[in-house]
Design goal:
The protein is α/β, with parallel strands linked by helices. It is built from 20 helices and 28 strands. The structure holds 2-deoxy-2-amino glucitol-6-phosphate. 2-deoxy-2-amino glucitol-6-phosphate binds next to helix 11.
């Protein structure tokens, strides 16, 4: 590839500018070098385009799935297989491709990796080869029994270059290809032998124009084009080219050519598939001029809540069509709700616990998915298990959902990713409509999750008759006022940014909250940890005197989420006295308090104001300054707010 640097954004506008965005113009296939901002995940393509354009563009959008090495394999127009792979972010591979171009070809697979087996090195990067280099394979997930398979292959004289489980799959596939002579049946011969989680894609030079894939416990979706077809870890891989998609189910094999898509089970039996229309367009997954995806997504929070509520409040009533499979009698028969999630999603569940218990008078427990599954929880048909997951692919949560269903519980998923695995493994799903969340740190999905859970809580309260119509209407009005109130808080972002820059050298920050403010204290601490790599801890304010107050020394920054003085008559004064206690010991107090709350003024060094809201709705507002603080402080430290070190957007391994 020579000459002009073509930014992918221009490439996508070339493609999207095409009439019908169908067959590529000559211009689109003349794309040269790549200026890559970010990439991640799995992409496959067969069609007339130069597959490398599709792979690099698709991977850029999937970056949040992991980004410590990257690679591509293309079958060129002469039927040769060409690969390139490099450790590091995708730009490293892009530079490599510019230095050592690979030939044009209409069949290809691409991958960026978040290391599990074997460190992030060139050698361990995907694709891996089989059948003496005639076959290339990429993989997401973990093949847990790879070492015994490797021993079997070593005993037969096969050699390996990497430490990865993926190379074992590639060599095994290559061995089977020699026996069967075609990729589909070679896949069928090996996939049932794998334990664990995998999405696999492979190409073979003897079968140009064909990409075959298989999945178990890991995501894979098909993009249906005109004279071309796509595969991806999620729809962001190909939404630039088509919005018609099909999610591939558990233990299924897919084969795509330019004109045909076939899906079978692991035994080769055809399976019915159900196409869906992707609800957002390619530009939504771009940064749209923002300096980072995170800044863009923080700013999109009003729309994330508004879109999640859209169409679900009709004539003053909650209307969630996705829950029609849960009849009113069944909802009335629920005697316990267990929420399972990880990280930020778990904190959304903790916030919702207060509201659902208060409105529907059903006990709600919130469990970390990875703890839930191993403590042999008592579940029965009266237990409703609600999983919360932005990606819908978090392995800990997926395995917990599967366990819950095996134990006889009914399951509802709150998810932001259409066609993801967790919703498909649940009895029902309530999608949040926050749009693609690309930054690793979850922000707009968090507020959307709370909004969706509040809708469910109000629906449950109505069905169980625990809230009057008047009270229901009041709560719904509060919920519908949240987007505008978040917008007001966003208007104060500059002041929070100044505070963050002033505190750029701080080594440790504490966060205090009570009641629904407590999960927000935990979330504020998590944001600071994962973005600015600063030690941060969230506490229930009432816990202070039971130990944590020993941490307070002169100058120690402490954020305090102050409950509304218009709410519980006791909580507000108790939190104000907590502020006095830590101030007396020299803490530097940053209070997040509602407009007009004067009680905090004598004791706080800084007050970040949020609009008036009913107590249960304050978390949706109080979290915003904490997100911005963490983001700005990370920015002040010159850190990458979209791709924090050691993290991936979707943790698809246990
Ligand atoms: C949030 O900022 C973190 N990136 C992380 O805690 C995340 O919320 C957690 O991994 C759960 O992800 P999920 O919502 O996709 O299941």
């Amino acid at each position: 590839m020579r000459g002009r640097m073509l930014r992918l954004k221009h490439l996508s506008s070339l493609v999207s500018g095409l009439p019908g965005a169908g067959r590529p113009s000559a211009a689109a296939s003349q794309s040269t070098a790549y200026t890559i901002e970010r990439m991640c995940g799995i992409v496959g393509y067969v069609g007339e385009r130069n597959s490398l354009d599709v792979l690099m563009g698709g991977l850029r959008r999937l970056e949040y799935r992991g980004y410590d090495s990257a690679g591509v394999a293309v079958i060129d127009d002469e039927g040769e297989i060409e690969t390139a792979k490099r450790a590091g972010k995708l730009q490293v591979l892009a530079d490599e491709l510019e230095r050592h171009p690979i030939h044009r070809g209409g069949t290809g697979i691409g991958h960026t990796r978040w290391a599990t087996h074997g460190g992030p090195t060139d050698r361990n990067a995907h694709p891996h080869l089989g059948d003496d280099g005639r076959l290339a394979l990429i993989h997401n997930g973990i093949i847990e029994n790879f070492s015994e398979l490797k021993d079997e292959l070593l005993a037969e004289g096969f050699a390996f270059e990497s430490e990865t489980d993926t190379e074992v799959a590639a060599v095994l596939l290559g061995r089977e290809y020699r026996r069967t002579g075609d990729l589909r049946s070679a896949f069928q011969a090996i996939v049932s032998r794998f334990e664990g989680a995998f999405t696999l894609l492979a190409v073979h030079r003897n079968e140009p124009g064909l990409v075959v894939g298989a999945r178990r416990n890991s995501p894979l979706v098909i993009g249906l084009g005109e004279g071309e077809n796509f595969l991806g870890s999620d729809v962001a891989a190909f939404v630039e080219f088509t919005k018609r998609a099909v999610a591939i189910g558990q233990d299924q094999i897919v084969a795509i050519t330019a004109d045909e898509v076939t899906v079978t089970d692991f035994d080769g039996e055809p399976v019915e598939v159900e196409p869906f229309e992707v609800a957002w367009d390619a530009s939504a997954a771009e940064k749209g001029g923002w300096s980072s995806f995170m800044r863009k997504e923080v700013s999109e929070q009003p729309e994330a809540v508004a879109n999640t509520l859209l169409g679900r409040v009709v004539d003053g009533q909650v209307h969630i069509p996705e829950l029609e499979s849960f009849g009113d009698d069944e909802l009335r028969a629920i005697h316990r709700i267990t929420v399972i999630a990880c990280g930020t999603a778990a904190y959304a569940g903790m916030v919702a616990k207060y509201a659902i218990e208060q409105w529907a008078r059903v006990p709600v427990e919130v469990e970390l998915s990875h703890e839930f599954r191993y403590r042999e929880p008592v579940l029965d048909e009266g237990t409703l298990v609600i999983s919360i997951s932005q990606s819908g692919e978090t392995m800990d949560t997926l395995m917990a959902v599967k366990y819950a269903r095996e134990m006889g519980a009914r399951t509802i998923s709150i998810c932001n990713t259409q066609g993801a695995t967790i919703p498909r493994e649940s009895d029902a799903v309530v999608y949040t409509h926050a749009g693609p969340e690309v930054a690793v740190a979850s922000t707009k999905a968090f507020v959307a999750q709370i909004a969706a859970l509040y809708l469910f809580g109000l629906h449950l309260a109505r069905v169980r008759g625990t809230l009057s119509e008047t009270e229901l209407g009041k709560q719904l009005a509060e919920l519908q006022s949240v987007p505008e109130k978040i917008r007001t808080v966003l208007g104060e972002a500059e002041h929070v940014g100044e505070l963050a820059h002033w505190m750029a050298d701080t080594r440790s920050v504490l966060f205090l909250g009570r009641h629904v403010g407590y999960p927000i204290a935990l979330e504020g601490a998590l944001k600071l940890k994962e973005l600015a790599y600063i030690h941060a801890e969230g506490f229930a304010a009432g816990e202070l005197k039971h130990g944590p107050i020993a941490l307070i020394e002169p100058g120690q920054p402490v954020f305090v989420i102050v409950p509304s003085p218009r709410g519980s008559a006791t909580l507000h004064p108790k939190v104000v006295s907590n502020i006095q206690e830590i101030r007396a010991r020299g803490a530097r107090v940053i209070a997040i308090a509602e407009e007009g709350d004067a009680a905090v003024l004598p004791f706080a060094d800084e007050v970040l104001r949020i609009p008036l809201a009913a107590p249960l709705f304050e978390p949706l507002l109080a979290v915003v300054p904490l997100q911005i603080f963490a983001m700005e402080l990370a920015q002040a430290k010159g850190l990458d707010v979209d791709q924090p070190r050691n993290l991936a957007k979707s943790v698809t391994v246990e």
